[in-house]
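Hey, I'm writing a tutorial for new members on how sequence and structure tokens pair up, and I'd like a real worked example in the thread rather than a made-up one. If someone can provide the structure for the chain below, I'll link this post from the tutorial.
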Amino acid sequence: MARRKRPRPEPSSAVPAEGMMSPFPPIASYGFISDCHTGALIAPDGAVEWLCVPRFDAPSVFGALLDREAGIFRFAPFGVSVPASRHYDTGTNILITTWMTPSGWLVVRDALILGRDLPEDDVTPHTRPPQDVDGEHMLVRTAECMAGHVELELVCEPAPDYARDDADWELLDGSRHVADMTASGSPPIFRLRSDLSLGIEGDRIRGRHQLQHGEMAFCALSWRGDLSGPETSEEAAAKIATTAEIWRGWLRNLRIPDHPWHEHLSRSALTIKGLTYMPTGSLVAALTTSLPETPGGERNWDYRYTWMRDATFTLRALHQLGLDWEADDFMQFVADLERDEDGSLQIMYGIDGRRDLSEEVLANLTGYNGAHPVRIGNGAFDQRQNDVYGAVLDSLYTHSVHRARLPQRLWPIVESQVRACREIWQQPDQGIWEARGEPQHYVSSKLMCWVGMDRAAKLAEIRGVPDLAEEWRAVADEIHADVMAHGVRDGVLRQHYDTDALDASTLLAATFGFLPADDPVLYASVCAIADDLTEDGYVLRYRTGETDDGLSGKEGTFLICSFWLVSALAIVGELDEARDLMERLLAICSSLGLYAEEFEPSTHRHLGNVPQAFSHLALIDAAMRIIAAADGEHGPHAQ
């Protein structure tokens, strides 16, 4: 079949002027679905606008999220773009969209399919022991007419390899119901099936059919090794029903308190699970790349990797919710990682454990709402960030406490991280926020080095080596004294040793026990951030005008920092203020219960990559702290 190269417009730097309608949906309006191998974002109009196959960090095949010409897959009423409602099927990551048209009502269900007792996965091979359930490597969509009749349209217009390649379609065996998509003469990337009659229109496939009351239609994209998939609407509906059962069965095993915040905790847990890469046990920081932290700006990063800093927050949340299997898989992923020559771990790795995450700019894409560059890879992977040691060692300690033992294969990691931490804690680094300016003596990096040595000493006690415990605790005491001598001014923890600027990362002094809850420096630091590092009550990472982060432009408030403030307020005894802020944060989640990285109070919009694991992990921690504190006051759940 002849290939048709479609013309690509030059990326524009223009951002829609104030008052102009953007062609991009709001970041908070996307629905997220997952099979724990990859995930998709679905816009309100029913179009899949982000999907990378076969795994989270693969090139996109649908990428309209970052360029309106970079591929969509829509299955929705013809001529109608605003649904009547959207919600998740209860207890699942299955999206349900209800449409009202002039002639009838339609319900569409979207799911990345999970299955039971599947054969060995040859698409994304497992390094962890395969579970009883796994991803089936297919996206299934059903549409059912609930009243009247509805004109249903299917438009599948992929743009492979981040829209750097073109799609070729071929109908199979003269059928109007099965088609293969290839690119650059490769074997088929995926196979499309539908009970709608399909037609090829250049680099897209389209189908259209009028559904009557009670009728159902389906479409399915499969990238399995054999490209198999459902062949009828009944088979498609059964696939979605099995997926729903699996999600609900998983959620049923969680320890979620009987509390008004139950739904928020459940949705955050489902989101974290959906961002887990099942073959290795790793966790992507977010589903997407290059959604802007500053509207129209350059703060656009690829978050489809695993950060070691997330490790401790991940382990805490998993164990808090009773997800011990997932916690063990994540720790085994960490144990398998290749370390640097000095034994230390990088700050981030690929979801398969690879080390090289070299950054590349995709000049062919306009970026979300004109925000570019669009980046793949992450140039911060080889930065020095001294907080990584505390994150890893706290993770090992948390896991060991919950397992009531330190697994033998994890002790060498403890020793290597301690050696590296002792060598570097006095050196400057790029800090937790991966600043691209000059290295500094960041307070949060120092206190996380203290966390590392403190947890290492406790791990040595668990292992039964008191001499090491005493030696490592002495180093922790030295770090602690250094921070208190150089990182505190006017009774408040500062961003780094050579500034008076505040930084939200110093809230970790509360959550990691660097200072006791009744310490006046801790109380003053928490209050200073609440009073002076907020916009409309939501917390900034830092003020960009006071920080050399190597970038230009303002950014929104960071949701994780606001959740950290909730936790810190609860720790220092300001429980009412903590509750109030928590309620405000829960009120600004998306209509589907999701959070991006940032929130802009002036416009009430979410910014940055979505859904953001860090935001949901911090929500779980903050909520559980408040619930535990309330139970301590009033009774029944305290434990």
